[in-house]
Design goal:
Strand order of the largest sheet: 3-2-1-4-5
Strand content: 5-15%
Helix content: 40-55%
Oligomer: single chain
Order of helices and strands: EHHEHHEHHEEH
Shape: globular
Distance between the termini: 15 Å
Radius of gyration: 15 Å
Number of helices: 7
Amino acid sequence: MRLLLDTNIIVDIISEREGYAESLQLLRYCETKFAEGFVSVISIMDVMYILRKHKPREAGRPSLREAMQIMLIILNTAVIQKSDISGAFTGDMDDYEDAVQANCAWRIGADYIVTRNLQDFTASPVPAISPRDALEMLSGN
């Protein structure tokens, strides 16, 4: 199964936001190659911007940069192309950044976009699912 992980999933894992355990388990499925995980380049930049002021360095814990480098060992990167950007202008999605993500997911052949914001992807060409739904599919439940 090929999955594009939305920005909020990566933020959840690195910042250990409430409910992050399912997202972390999904990342482990990607690490062990039970799923092929992708993160868009725009998500990497957004995560770094969002968390740079909100994730203080804790003793014995990886820094934000180290955490993102670990993510990049586990996940494939999906480069945003001109077609993703221009297609986002003409689609039916209200949120431009989500539309770019959706177009990127479609172009790379993702089966699903994994996100906590399912309502933002209702018009996406690639179905959006929650981390819990992805885990259920991967575990066969």
